[in-house]
Amino acid sequence: MTVNFEVNGIARSLTVDTRTTLLDALREHLQLTGTKKGCDHGQCGACTVIADGRRINACLSLAVMHEGRKVTTIEGLGTPDLLHPVQAAFIRHDGYQCGYCTPGQICSAIAVLQEIRAGIPSHATEDLMARPQATNMEMRERMSGNICRCGAYSNIAQAMAEVAGVKA
Q: Under a CB-based contact definition with an 8 Å cutoff, are residues 64 and 3 in contact?
């Protein structure tokens, strides 16, 4: 089946088996290997990408489900000369150790901050009628689907707090 979508701002057309995951389409068909295959079961978050502004586990999503959508991977966020603010904050706060989970962590962090700005509540949001705030607890709850085997969670939280303009 053919799928037409935009990946990192570029219109792409792929012919894939209908069972091909978005993760495999990105890595194997488009050679965008920044998105990592971790558990391949949606439990670790290493494959997190942003689809139409929402974070998703690319390993759990079929490529053909993204017809006409806009997908952003780590490669589409910034350049070495002009990093995305979250990428720059991760560097400043050492928000990575081995780096394997970092692309998924960064994509998730960007989407989490967008969710909070958009007023989308989470399980940690105390008052569902009030706009959620970028508190340490709120951001950590939203990032709980992204596992870091090295344990850089505090550094990631500090990077996100800096970008959100709050205290970690």
A: yes
Residue 118 corresponds to which tokens in the numbers above? 């958009």
Q: How far is it, in rounded angstroms, from Cα 46 to Cα 94? A: 18
Q: Domains, the chain, ranges and CATH?
A: 2-76 (3.10.20.30), 85-164 (1.10.150.120)
CA–CA separation, 112 and 129 (whole Å): 19
Residues of the chain with pLDDT under 50: none
The tokens of 142 are what? 């939203």
Residues 100-120 have pLDDT tens digits of: 999 999 999 999 999 999 999
**CA nearest neighbour of 59 among 77, 36, 75, 30:** 36
